[in-house]
Amino acid sequence: MRGDAAYHPLRIDVGAPGAEEQEHPMREKVIIIGSGPAGLTAAIYAGRAALRPLVFEGFSAGGLIPGGQLMFTTDVENYPGFPTGVLGPDLMKNFRDQAERCGARLITQDVSEVDFRRRPFVVRSDDHTVEAHAVIIATGARANWLNLPNEQRLAKSGGGVSACAVCDGALPTFRQQELVVVGGGDSAIEEGSYLTKFAKKVHLVHRRDRLRASKAMQERFFKLVEAGKMSPVWDTQVIDVLGDSMITGVRLKNVKTGAESELPCKGLFLAIGHTPNTEVFRGQIECDEKGYIRLPRPGSTCTNVEGVFAAGDVADHVYRQAVTAAGTGCMAALDAERWLAAQGIE
Ligand SMILES: Cc1cc2nc3c(=O)[nH]c(=O)nc-3n(C[C@H](O)[C@H](O)[C@H](O)COP(=O)(O)OP(=O)(O)OC[C@H]3O[C@@H](n4cnc5c(N)ncnc54)[C@H](O)[C@@H]3O)c2cc1C
Q1: What is 19-142+274-342's CATH number?
Q2: Whose CA is closest to 158, among 247, 258, 26, 286?
Q3: d(Cα 30, Cα 339) in Å, to the nearest integer?
Q4: Average pLDDT over residues 169-186
Q5: pLDDT tens figures, 37-83
Q6: Fold exhibited by the domain 145-270
């Protein structure tokens, strides 16, 4: 669950560019954009391949901070290698330390512009213009929230509000409790049916009178309704989250009648989509209709631009887990290394 980030990453002061850099930009073998599990795993692998990767670890783009989404969570219980769990910020500090030990250099700035139409590619931040033969994009995605004040407060304090059922649903606090899921698409049904493994009952609050989910997912939902494990609350929006340190319920509003009511619950899970952090790459690289980077070759991290690779949540709207992000970060570094070698750049 989201918690106050205890770890604030070190800022590496690479200095403002001198006149020389303005005239002759630094030229890198590989630049990595993003410092979540995908970007830092790519940095570890590229570092060990002696590519001396330069990582733009971000600053505040997409509402994220260096270290990525896990900086906003408390316990991570499902990252392999930590049998008793690990705090998100501690895990990301380990990633970062390991990347630096492997030779990665980090700039704590957001990339504000890229030019993938020329080679070497150009990557710009507020203070730096850098050329690179290869680029790995790992800028992640952000969960969409309702942006209600109490929702944000309880999400940040681990008070029972989450945007990831797979991450948090198995926590003891949600077991055998009444839970609420907001949304009406495939992920809402996916998350809701996952929660039925632990919950007493899952209420699906949806602002329309029918689901947007695929036929197969709708069938799954109505079977769970028949079994008494889920129940729909149609035409309804959550307008407030109740509770001081832990959620005790939600306030609802029927969008057709305007009637307000309260639904007691011990957990609120948002499943209203994610927004990939690809604004800065618009027009430079092919994305799908939701803005996720397209990977045209299955089983590889190659994008439609030769020499540009993408890893993690920025190209994955299906799994969205730290371990899958790290896995594709590894793939991106290996793909970039092989591509550079084929160009004679080692
Ligand atoms: C609250 C919460 C709890 C979660 N808990 C779990 C869990 O328990 N287990 C699990 O497996 N997964 C969990 N997840 C999901 C997991 O965090 C993500 O799947 C994972 O972090 C994705 O990694 P990533 O590297 O692709 O991107 P992110 O972690 O999203 O990192 C993206 C990085 O890109 C940087 N960035 C963005 N734009 C720019 C730019 N323009 N220039 C430079 N840098 C930029 C950001 O600063 C950030 O460093 C959780 C997610 C959330 C939100």
Answers
A1: 3.50.50.60
A2: 247
A3: 11
A4: 95
A5: 999 999 999 999 999 999 999 999 888 889 999 987 778 999 999 99
A6: FAD/NAD(P)-binding domain (3.50.50)
